[in-house]
Specification:
By secondary structure, this protein is α/β, with parallel strands linked by helices. 44% of the residues lie in helices and 15% in strands. The C terminus is likely disordered.
């Protein structure tokens, strides 16, 4: 009995010693944590003091700069040089206009030759006589490209929706000034539809990638290698989060409400797979009111060089295709069809092929004139005058053969597989 009691006492003593050691360890841990807490609190106090000191410093700097600005604006030299600054800005705008007109003039000979081949001499002369469409006065004009030497550019800040309805994908390759103008037009437009902007740099060699890092509110992606227009669009689509994909060329500027009207088309019309905007030249002439595909797989733009206000071009209708310069498509449908077909790389006819795929899925391709986009044309790739235009590394003759297998499928109602010879006026709406 006594031995049993001794054993029990010994066990209790052992448990007591273990618990005492454990309590001492806990006490030591509490003391260590207390010291760390005090040190963290001290660091917090120090950081808060540093922040307050930095804030006070920046406030003083802001006040100093505001005072210098006010002094500069009130100075005699600033007032005297105002006419010079105005003249320099006007010269920069004029140089942009002259450059645009020069590019159009350089493209005139091949367009004339194509017109003679397609329409003949009589049709070409009729086309020239009918191409003097009046300038559009009631549409907003695109802003001319910023001359940073004359006017330092302000930062570009775009809204980024937490749950975007649309993902705007902009493929770029060099030509930063066009990309900048495109992003600025997006930044100043207030849209009901939340959106995100994804800019895909296809290995630009100019300042584009560096400048994109300075733009707030966009997702900037740089391809590891040059993928061309088709590959860049697909790369941007892979990063998208929106319900709809909106492909937008970097040589565009958008008009008010362009996005809302583009996306509302999906809700207002049944069985819609793709919607394209009305494309307008910077000088106010109509560039495209939807597209037509002929029986030889070549294509043309409705209303080209006409008046955007023409009633024939101002109603929603089904078309064979819409130019990829400004189109919207449900992201799920785009992924289901495998994106833009890589067989059309680096560019051209990928939008036409996608339109045929949309119809294969039992959906329609619609043109939406209420969504206006100004398109400088020929900057994102090269000029797409007749969709037969040569792209470096791409053989246009191969394109019709690639697209031809889709032609037995139905095109838009009213223009099924027509030949050029049987089409009286493809330029009119």
């Amino acid at each position: 009995m006594i031995d049993e009691l001794h054993g029990r006492i010994g066990g209790l003593v052992h448990d007591f010693d273990e618990r005492t050691a454990w309590a001492r360890q806990l006490d030591a841990e509490v003391q260590r944590l207390g010291r760390e807490l005090l040190a963290a609190a001290q660091r917090h106090d120090d950081a808060q003091q540093d922040w307050q000191a930095a804030a006070a410093h920046f406030q003083r700097e802001i006040a100093r700069l505001e005072a210098e600005k006010a002094e500069l604006l009130a100075s005699l030299s600033w007032r005297l040089t105002k006419p010079l600054r105005f003249a320099r800005r006007q010269f920069g705008h004029a140089s942009v206009q002259l450059g645009y007109l020069a590019r159009r003039a350089l493209g005139l000979p091949p367009r004339v030759l194509r017109s003679l081949r397609v329409r003949g001499l009589k049709g070409t002369l009729e086309r020239v006589r009918g191409s003097d469409a009046p300038a559009v006065l009631d549409l907003p004009k695109p802003e001319l490209l910023v001359d940073e030497a004359a006017t330092p550019a302000s930062p570009i800040v775009l809204p980024r929706a937490a749950s975007p309805r649309a993902s705007i994908v902009i493929p770029v390759y060099n030509k930063w000034r066009y990309t900048e103008a495109c992003l600025r037009s997006l930044a100043k437009e207030t849209q009901r539809s939340g959106f995100e902007v994804i800019v895909v740099d296809d290995g630009s060699s100019d300042e584009t990638w560096e400048r994109l890092q300075q733009v707030e509110g966009i997702t900037a992606h740089r391809n590891a290698e040059n993928l061309g227009f088709v590959g860049s669009c697909n790369a941007g689509a892979a990063l998208a989060r929106g319900e709809y994909l909106v492909f937008l060329n970097n040589d565009t500027q958008v008009a008010p409400n362009w996005l809302d009207t583009l996306l509302d088309t999906f809700d207002q019309h049944p069985r819609v797979g793709t919607v394209g905007s009305q494309l307008v030249y910077p000088d106010g002439r109509l560039q495209e009111a939807g597209g037509i595909v002929f029986s030889d797989s070549s294509g043309w733009n409705y209303g080209r060089f006409g008046d955007p206000r023409d009633p024939a071009c101002n109603f929603v209708r089904e078309v064979d295709y819409c130019s990829g310069a400004a189109i919207a498509i449900p992201r799920a449908l785009f992924e289901q069809r495998g994106g833009f077909d890589a067989r059309y790389a680096p560019a051209y006819y990928e939008d036409t092929d996608l339109a045929f795929q949309v119809r294969e899925a039992g959906l329609r391709v619609l043109y939406q004139p209420a969504s206006t986009v100004f398109h400088f044309e020929g900057v994102s790739a090269s000029t797409d005058d007749d969709r037969d235009e040569e792209v470096p590394g791409h053989q246009p003759a191969e394109v019709p053969r690639t697209l031809a297998w889709r032609l037995p499928q139905a095109t838009a109602a009213g223009h099924r597989l027509r030949s050029r010879a049987n089409t009286v006026s493809v330029g009119a709406c």
